[in-house]
């Protein structure tokens, strides 16, 4: 048997018990060890996910790690028993964007595990075997559940091209922000500031490689200071303020997911400062490879970000914590294996 959380419609969910799903041709069935809950999952439950980017009823869960339990026709049976994670975007692999390596920008239509396809808030998840990334046999699967947000950070760092001795700022001290700090610290910056109005959250960054922290109003006193600014918060004002923090000719990477009402970037400041601005939507296959390698080599230690763990039965309590505003809440996991 196999359990799965199913969100039938915004605000309505149930824990179903059913037969184990069977992998079809080209697919793998993975037993889920741990799965993270992020704000996107909260949006699915609350009904705030943008139209076209969710399909109800759905089993959420796109940040996960587990062990291959069975494979379908055409898949190497040697995968069975291997620890793994998997890319969420069900890209076509043949369109122009996929063929140039931007698999996260596939133009064949949006399909993603946990949003339009059944995800990992379950004992088992079915995924295309071609999207699997294998881990070391004794990998910490609790920590590996955060490789998905780490892949987004990999995309941001690759876009930002950090260089040794630069002044770098990370805006936001959530999961993405703290993972970005870990990754950027490995690039030997002269200064690595973390900017967040939540003092307790910002101070956590000091244990991950940040040189100092600041509240937004303090940071603006140093506007124009940073060579590279990596925005991870997705708050209404952080795209605009991140551009003000960058020096003339500096670089800004927008990683947070912005909602309606976000403040626009001043085009006069943009042109006068000759800023290089990049945005990130998810992660490509290349970025997933980079995140897995960084995890396996110890560059990233995402397990330290986990603060709460719940069984599947306590999904409602777990999702309520996410986005609660409590600075003591970091990454929240569901642990189906328990």
Question: Would you give an account of this structure?
Answer:
This protein has 338 residues and is of the alpha/beta class. The protein has two domains: 2-145 and 301-334, Medium-chain alcohol dehydrogenases, catalytic domain (Quinone Oxidoreductase, Chain A, domain 1, Alpha-Beta Complex), CATH 3.90.180.10; 152-279, NAD(P)-binding Rossmann-like Domain (Rossmann fold), CATH 3.40.50.720. The chain is built from eleven helices and 15 strands. It has helices at 39-46, 96-99, 141-144, 147-160, 175-185, 199-204, 216-220, 238-245, 267-273, 285-296, 315-321; strands spanning 2-9, 12-18, 27-37, 63-71, 83-86, 124-128, 132-134, 167-171, 191-195, 212-214, 226-231, 246-254, 276-279, 306-310, 331-334. Strands 3, 4, 5, 6, 7, 14 and 15 form a seven-stranded mixed sheet that branches. A six-stranded parallel sheet has the order 10-9-8-11-12-13. A two-stranded antiparallel sheet has the order 1-2. A hairpin with a 2-residue loop joins strand 1 (2-9) and strand 2 (12-18). Helix 4 packs across helix 5 (175-185) and helix 4 crosses helix 10. The two termini are 15 Å apart. The relative contact order is 0.16.
């Amino acid at each position: 048997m196999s359990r799965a959380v199913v969100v039938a419609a915004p605000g309505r969910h149930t824990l179903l018990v059913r037969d184990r799903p069977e992998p079809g041709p080209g697919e793998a069935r993975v037993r889920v060890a741990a799965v993270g809950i992020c704000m996107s999952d909260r949006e699915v439950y609350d009904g705030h996910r943008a139209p076209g980017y969710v399909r109800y009823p759905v089993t959420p869960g796109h940040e996960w790690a587990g062990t291959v339990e069975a494979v379908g026709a055409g898949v190497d049976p040697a995968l069975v028993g291997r620890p793994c994670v998997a890319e969420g975007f069900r890209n076509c692999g043949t369109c122009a964007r996929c063929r140039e390596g931007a698999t996260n920008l596939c133009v064949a239509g949006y399909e993603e595990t946990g949003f339009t396809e059944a995800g990992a808030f379950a004992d088992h998840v079915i995924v295309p075997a071609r999207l699997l990334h294998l881990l070391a046999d004794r990998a910490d699967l609790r920590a590996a559940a955060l490789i998905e947000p780490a892949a987004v950070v990999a995309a941001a760092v690759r876009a930002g091209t950090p260089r040794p001795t630069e002044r770098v700022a990370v805006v936001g001290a959530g999961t993405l922000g703290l993972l970005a700090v870990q990754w950027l610290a490995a690039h030997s910056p002269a200064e690595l500031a973390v900017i967040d109005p939540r003092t307790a959250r910002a101070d956590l960054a000091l244990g991950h490689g940040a040189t100092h922290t600041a509240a937004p109003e303090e940071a603006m006193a140093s506007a124009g200071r940073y060579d590279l600014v990596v925005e991870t918060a997705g708050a209404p004002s952080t795209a605009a303020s991140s551009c003000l923090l960058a020096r003339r000719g500096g670089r800004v990477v927008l990683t947070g997911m912005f909602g309606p009402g976000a403040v626009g970037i001043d085009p006069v400041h943009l042109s006068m400062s000759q800023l290089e601005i990049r945005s990130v939507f998810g992660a490509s296959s290349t970025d997933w490879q980079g995140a897995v390698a960084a995890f396996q080599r110890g560059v990233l230690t995402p397990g330290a970000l986990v603060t709460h763990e719940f069984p599947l039965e306590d999904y409602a309590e777990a999702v309520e914590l996410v986005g609660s505003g409590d600075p003591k809440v970091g990454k929240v996991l569901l642990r189906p294996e328990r």
